[in-house]
Amino acid sequence: MNGPNLNLLPWVTEKFISAAPLAAAKALDSLATHEALLLLKPLKAEQLITCLNQMDTAKAAAVLRRLPSRQAAHILSRLSLPQAVQIYKAFSIAQREKMKTLLAASWVELLEKGNTFAAGSAGAQMNRDFVTFKTEMKVADVLEKLKTIPRKKLPLACLIVGGKEGKLKGIIRTAELAFFAPNSLVGSVMGEVKSLSLGSAAQEAQPLLQLQPLVPVLDENGVPQGILTLAELMGRTTTKKRFGWF
Q: Is the same domain home to 146 and 101?
């Protein structure tokens, strides 16, 4: 294969993953690890997450082991919990210790507990794609941060967290941010939000979603670990990137 055609491979792979993620994952499962890496390594985190979530655990773990540690940790923290748990178990002790230094302590705790959530629970079905801002940030600064996110991937709402642990304090609908004074602190203009625990039944989010755009899923310390939207309740897989803490 010549140079120009080789350069097209990541583009073709990205389109394949976007159009048919499960079929793409199965196709990559059939390749040797070094061949899968050739196709996956140039991709953005969004496509990697989508594909690795669907891939055979052993092959997904083999791919992550060969990525730079920080990139691997970034991907691992955004995979679905069941897949992330199995991949984490497939890592060597040394690799797990390295991941512990790069991942949030709350996520490491979930990985080490294993996927003990019952089928249909909020923890088993939650989506890791959410955005958080701290209570002391100004509205103007939040808007600037959101400008770095592609328009089609802007979240419906942002979670507002506070304290050293990052406990959930409230929510702000993204579309409403423009109506607040730029110098206002988000903690002073945020709204209340109903949440679920990791062990709650995911369907408990159904009536809450009639009142709010998403339902945060919290660990025992009140720290957001994921969200539930209508997509999760209907069994659809979302592929947006989790942009994390600001």
A: no
Does 236 share its domain with 127? Answer: yes
Q: Which two tokens stand for residue 162?
A: 């506070």
What residues contact 192, with CB distance under 8 A and at least 6 apart? Answer: 170, 171
* Cβ-based neighbour number of residue 100 at 10 Å: 15
- Find out whether 223 and 110 touch, Cβ atoms under 8 Å: no
Q: Are residues 224 and 132 in the same domain?
A: yes
For the chain of 246 residues, list the mean pLDDT of each consecutive stretch of 10. 56 84 91 90 86 92 93 90 90 92 88 80 87 96 91 89 93 95 96 95 95 94 92 61 44
* Amino acid 71: pLDDT: 92
User: Is residue 32 packed enough to be buried (19+ CB in 10 Å), middle (13-18) or exposed (0-12)?
Assistant: exposed
> Which residue in 39, 95, 42 sits closest to 72, CA to CA?
95
Q: Dihedral through CA 237, CA 239, CA 245, CA 246, nearest 10?
A: -140
**pTM of the predicted model, to two decimals?**
0.71
Domain at 16, CATH number: 1.10.220
